[in-house]
UniProtKB/TrEMBL annotation, chain A:
Keyword entries, A-Z: Ubl conjugation pathway
UniProt-recorded name of the protein: UBC-like protein
Record bears the keyword rRNA-binding: no
Stored CDD domains: UBCc_UBE2W
Keyword Glycoprotein part of the UniProt annotation: no
Xref: SUPFAM superfamilies: UBC-like
Top-level taxon: Eukaryota
Annotated UBC core domain residues: 4-158
InterPro entries tied to this protein: Ub_conjugating_enzyme (IPR050113), UBC (IPR000608), UBQ-conjugating_enzyme/RWD (IPR016135)
Origin species: Lactarius akahatsu
Automatic annotation (TrEMBL), chain B:
Keywords: Cell cycle, Cell division, Metal-binding, Mitosis, Ubl conjugation pathway, Zinc, Zinc-finger
Keyword field contains Cell division: yes
GO cellular component: a single term: anaphase-promoting complex
Naturally occurring in which organism (per UniProt): Lactarius akahatsu
Record's protein name: Anaphase-promoting complex subunit 11
PROSITE patterns: ZF_RING_2
Keyword Cell cycle listed: yes
PANTHER family per the UniProt record, alphabetical: RING BOX (PTHR11210)
Length: 158, 120
């Protein structure tokens, strides 16, 4: 059990909080909404500039595995009355995201901010707003935690 | 003025020779990419830095705390790859516990000066 590595997560949180307070360092369009503990964090994400998601704001939920950073966190878009997930070929309507960085391509040298930025650029580079193939079937049978899904990664550049 | 050195203590720092040319001890690269703790400190599972918590170099030249790297390599998800560049991890054992006290030239001597009228 790598509770000892929670120090790293605390450090990440401190760095994010410092960055957020400084507009010159802050990643534009990404904001930490809530991080009460080292288990679950919320971010808001929007794509600034010209994109298919202009003026849309999404919420990302990040749940940490006790084995973080050796295991990737579970990351998904929040689906609620107030916020909806983006319509994107890699995002299911239940908020689950198919991105290799969250699964096979995770590395312990990555960080929560690196994930947020990757997801933001995944939205920024989208050419066509459409749901993933088989969305309805997936959503009907999907586990609560997207990490339990074995995704087949599509082209991450889309 | 005559100075009598009553006592002095030397302070020597050691640091791992990570093969980086730049001597700036607090450079970003001098942090283990896995635990984010400087190489001069030990990995989160150890208490004392030094030979008991060595660094490990990959053939790709990336450096980590040995314990951090082995923990990653021990997971199925690692696919035995370097976490930085995903090349197959192979280590250069020869480097394993080399450390150079290369800051020994920075010995500082503090001396108590005896001056007129000053009592201690
Ligand atoms: Zn480390
Ligand atoms: Zn150690
Ligand atoms: Zn490497």
């Amino acid at each position: 059990m790598s509770v000892v590595y929670s120090r790293r997560l605390k450090k990440e949180l401190q760095e994010i909080q410092i960055e957020q307070a400084d507009p010159t360092k802050r990643a534009a369009g990404i904001q930490l909404l809530q991080a009460d503990d080292l288990k679950i964090w919320f971010f808001s994400i929007e794509v600034l500039g010209e994109s298919l998601y202009k003026n849309e704001v999404f919420h990302l939920m990040v749940r940490f595995d006790p084995e973080y950073p050796f295991k990737s966190p579970a990351v998904q878009f929040v689906v609620s009355d107030k916020v909806k997930p983006p319509v994107h070929p890699h995002v299911y309507t239940n908020g689950h995201i198919c991105a290799s960085i969250l699964g096979d391509d995770w590395s312990p040298t990555l960080s929560v901010m690196a994930i947020c930025i990757t997801i933001q650029s995944m939205l920024a580079s989208c050419k066509k707003k459409e749901l993933p193939e088989g969305n309805d079937d997936y959503v009907r049978t999907a586990p609560d935690n997207p990490k339990k899904t074995r995704f087949v990664y599509h082209d991450d550049t889309v | 003025m005559k100075i009598t050195v009553k006592r002095w203590h030397a302070i020597a720092q050691w640091q791992w020779d990570t093969g980086k040319t730049d001597d700036n001890g607090d450079a970003e690269e001098d942090v283990c990419g896995i635990c984010r703790i400087p190489f001069e400190g030990c990995c989160p599972t150890c208490k004392v830095p030094g030979d008991d918590c060595p660094l490990i170099w990959g053939e790709c030249s990336h450096v980590f705390h040995m314990h951090c790297l082995l923990k990653w390599i021990g997971t199925a998800a690692s696919k035995q790859q370097c976490p930085m560049d995903r090349r197959p991890w192979g280590e250069t054992i020869a480097h394993l516990s080399v450390h150079t006290p290369r800051n020994l030239d920075r010995i500082s001597i503090s001396s108590d000066r005896r001056e007129k009228g000053r009592r201690e």
